[in-house]
Specification:
Elements lengths: L1 H11 L40 H9 L10 E2 L10 E5 L4 E4 L3 E2 L2 H8 L5 E4 L9 E5 H7 L6 E4 L2 E9 L1 H6 L14
Parallel strand pairs: 6-8
Antiparallel strand pairs: 1-4, 2-3, 2-7, 5-8, 7-8
């Protein structure tokens, strides 16, 4: 009877958990870091959720925190359903499967993302129109450093080109690839 009651309670009980999920990660970068993500609920699906500005400001005001490196990236997309397109002045078009938003100077100090630029310059913090694109796209889009790209109702200026193979090897502080995922 006790086993039956225990089984009934175990298989019919549903609980929702809230709070922190702490996972110890194997260090991959020579930094003492804490990775904070706001992961959506199971019902919501999709990717990570933006942390509130007030939380980032609170982190920056903490005397024990030396650097805050926010990273924004898109939720996974499929090759058949890109985020959108970028167009060059010559009319060439490229699918956009991933976008990463960073504070360039901070990211350069943590992941050394600036080392993958093989032509042109790395991004500047105060340049919201500046973008880096893969050097493999340079020829197909017929673009160079300083040229403009158009898309997402914006105008962007190419500041440099990066080595796509080198970027695919860049790891974030959690040991996962730095690039957004796509299916």
């Amino acid at each position: 009877l006790v086993t039956f009651i225990f089984g009934f309670i175990s298989f019919t009980s549903i609980s929702v958990g809230y709070g922190f999920s702490i996972t110890t990660l194997k260090p991959v970068l020579p930094v003492d870091a804490l990775l904070i993500k706001d992961v959506p609920s199971m019902e919501g699906g999709g990717g990570n959720i933006a942390l509130p500005d007030s939380f980032i400001e609170w982190l920056e005001s903490n005397p024990n925190v030396t650097t805050v490196a926010p990273k924004a990236e898109n939720s996974p997309v499929s090759v058949d359903n890109p985020l959108g397109f970028l167009y060059s002045s010559s009319g060439e078009r490229m699918n956009v499967l991933g976008v990463i938003g960073i504070i360039p100077s901070v990211e350069a100090n943590i992941t050394h993302l600036d080392h993958i630029v093989n032509k042109g310059n790395y991004l500047e913090d105060d340049d919201p129109k500046g973008v880096l694109i893969s050097s493999s796209l340079q020829e197909s889009l017929k673009v160079d450093v300083g040229d403009k790209l158009y898309g997402f109702e914006q105008e962007f200026i190419i500041r440099g080109f990066f080595d796509g193979d080198a970027l695919s090897k860049v790891l974030d502080v959690n040991g996962e690839g730095f690039l957004p995922r796509y299916r």
